[in-house]
Amino acid sequence: MTNKKTDRLNIQDFLFSVRLLSLFFAAIAFLQFAYWQVDAGAEFASYVWYVPLAAIAIAAAIYLCLFNLRRATKRQQRWGKALECGLMLGVFFFAIAVTGLWESQYKILFLFLIISYTFESGMRVGLGLAAFCSLAVLAIDAVWAPTQGGVNLQMQNDLLLCGAFIVTAWALGFYSQIRQEYIASLEKQVRVDGLTGLLNHRSFYDAVQAGFERAVREDQPLSLIFADVDYFKTYNDCHGHQAGDAALVAMAGLFTQLLGDGKQIFRYGGEEFSLILPGVGEEEARALAERLRAAVEEHPFPGEEVLPGGRLTISCGVAARTPQQADYKELVHSGDDALYRAKFFRKNRVEVYVSLLEQFPREGSEGVEEALASIRALIAVVNSRDMYTFGHTERVVYYADMMARQLALPPEEAGQLVYAAYVHDVGKINIPKEVLLKPIGLTDEEWGEMKRHPEEGAYILQNLPSLAFTAELVRHHHERYDGSGYPDGLKGEEIPYLSRVLTLVDSFDAILSDRPYKKGRTFEEGIAELVRCRGTQFDPALTDQFIEALRTVR
């Protein structure tokens, strides 16, 4: 439960207590009236009807309080409040009437009503209710109170009470207004980015969760666009952070101008922006992302000539909701993965997320659907334990598909490689979580635990008929070409051909990825590491092919 919701419920509890207390005092008025009647020797039947009538009115008012505060929709709340207020006014007038009208001390009951409704509904409602109650009290005095020498003394006395009504409504209304403005200011600071004026990272996740749930409920399309500024660190280093901030503000203005105020635009973090597009499909989102990219490329930013290409540009990743996505987090991961591809390969481009798991050969392959279902289940389990592994898996699959095309593998082998790439880390399911997520380097004992995951993965896959064909590849994807790998210490051509490919693509993404205990390297540094380990960790011929494929795509 959020703090805001808790605060609202606490206020509702307080207001309910105030109204309930006022009804309790009204009940005392009716009991006092009954006591007077008995004391005066009146027959029971002459006054008994007041008591059940009052009890029914009070019970109805209490029910309306509960209904209004706990169960009602906004429209029902408005009508409920009006009925509740009217009924409570009726109860109070009745209590005043039976306890002496102008002589009644229960006119103070109106103050409880003014306090609760002013605090709940604001100064305007409070002052209106205070004015109504004041006129009612003065009308009672004018009609029923006697005059002495032409002067209505009771009205003079009650003017002070009416003044208290007005002052209370004004003071509480003013306090309520200041409080609401202060809360709104705090919410804006929490939800709005102070630099660009766009909604921030926190707001994005609240909005995308609500949008995803609505899209699923109404079976409507939903797309995301992630945009990241290319070479922004270089721009900052050359011109300073103030120039970088000015560029981000200008970019936010470009997005708002191009898309209009109705679109949900967020500063996702640093130099990254995100858009939520309810009711927009993949193709429309792609076209919109391309317009954003072109608008930024054409906009003249001061000092952009120092950047590669002489322009400040953005890369965009697009992802659309699919029936296979279990929740909004999967949609966000898809958008992140598409952005990663756009940033990694050439930049200044738009990439649409495509799941190779969904599109890879289905041409009459037996057991494909069963294999896909098994892979989805395994990925969901791995993702629940380690979010890094999820994103890493998607990228390794992308590189595996790239290598399958580079090597012109037959469809059957290409499919085997891609499926193995999806499940190559499934053995981490059996690795203790404190080892898997440890933010610093592992001890020898912990490293021994981690090195078990290829065997654990192969064992799991052997017991899944639809994926058993990937077990051998997964078992040997940490073998090294010089024989120093694990678990079996295979060397050179002893290592299955596709396992050698999988080792390359898996290791390359690990080199480039940030982890709590290490900083990811750049693309060029990753290539240099492949060259350095050529012939020791990696198959030399395959290493050359992989580097060629990376250079070609980039």
UniProtKB/TrEMBL annotation:
The portions of this protein that span the membrane are: 14-35, 47-69, 81-102, 122-147, 159-178
Name assigned to this protein: Diguanylate cyclase
Q: Which organism is it from?
A: Bittarella massiliensis (ex Durand et al. 2017)
Instruction: Name the CDD domains on file.
Output: GGDEF (cd01949), HDc (cd00077)
The GGDEF domain, residue ranges: 220-355
* Sorted UniProt keywords: Membrane, Transmembrane, Transmembrane helix
Report the SMART domains cross-referenced here. GGDEF, HDc
Q: Which InterPro entries match?
A: Cyclic_di-GMP/3'3'-cGAMP_PDE, GGDEF_dom, HD/PDEase_dom, HD_domain, HD_GYP_dom, Nucleotide_cyclase, Rev_trsase/Diguanyl_cyclase
Which Pfam family, any one of them, does this sequence belong to? HD_5
This protein's source sits in the domain of life called Bacteria
Domain (HD) ranges:
389-511
Q: Which residues form the HD-GYP domain?
A: 367-554
